[in-house]
Design a protein that fits this description.
- The chain has 321 residues and is of the alpha/beta class.
- The protein has 10 helices and 13 strands.
- It folds into 2 domains: 3-177 and 217-241, Rossmann fold, CATH 3.40.50.720; 184-215 and 245-283 and 300-320, UDP-galactose 4-epimerase, domain 1 (Alpha-Beta Complex).
- Helix 2 (60-70) packs parallel to helix 4 and helix 6 (187-199) runs parallel beside helix 8 (249-259).
- It is an enzyme of class 4 (lyase).
- Its EC number is 4.2.1.47.
Amino acid sequence: MKTALITGITGQDGSYMAEFLLNKGYQVYGLSRRTSTVTTERISHIIDKIKIVEGDLVDQHSLTHIIKDVKPQEVYNLAAQSFVPSSFSQPVLTGEITALGVIRMLEAVRIGYPKAKFYQASSSEMFGKAQEVPQSEKTPFYPRSPYGVAKLYGHWITVNYRESYNLFAVSGICFNHESPRRGTEFVTRKISQAVARIKLGKQKKLVLGNIDAKRDWGYALDYMEAMWLMLQQKKAQDFVIGTGETHSVKEFAKLAFEVVGINNWEDYIEVNRTHFRPAEVDLLIADNTKAKKILKWQPKTSFRKLIDIMVKSDLEREAKV
């Protein structure tokens, strides 16, 4: 039986990855910070099938001990301060967790169990002010937020440890991936939740920032397979993971309202400039040619289907509250 350690197991990606690996017969350990409030909602249905270990990405000692004790064949570093707007208001914290947290995990693997295969969750936000469209593994980086800069450090330090210490360490440069488990502060989930609430008469308006911003949005569940496949290769290498399609926030909102039968969707939207980013990224769209060729991976869920899944899930959730 293979053993895997997932950091950020209580988050969107961590919870889906835990499910994915359990279905493949893994013994799954999840790293979780001790907090005074329970944050296991996303993994409550599998909590009895996984082992939670207490540790923190800012505490090197705890990470090294966990790696030594667990000796995982695979490590998925999915923990981060991942909300871009918060990275502008909390830049140092973002750097501490999203950047330096990666090197602490790599050090833990190097010292504690260097046989482990290590996956780092890199981000399309590293491309930021896109130097070419679409973006591939060879596209130069130009991050436009403290989050993007922190992710870039995590990305390059992973490359450095692979080359310096011969670790099997890879980065998946994932474009935006959404689901019903996405935090409500993210624009896609903000939209799906608001649409459900408007349909049920609980809310009157959906307040958004830049509705012309475009992203490459996929379904989080599809991306777990790509992450796993990267650690099953003989050679450690990085991959861009995305759909290769781009859609605007406005388009996402329009389709979300269509799911609940509201056609005059524009009447419910209010644009507020305080929600605009200090520095907006340009057109982010994935060139996933390498992933298709080497990993034999491609997304299974369409943009329209993703929105349908998210809105219906929020309708069900809101109807119970």
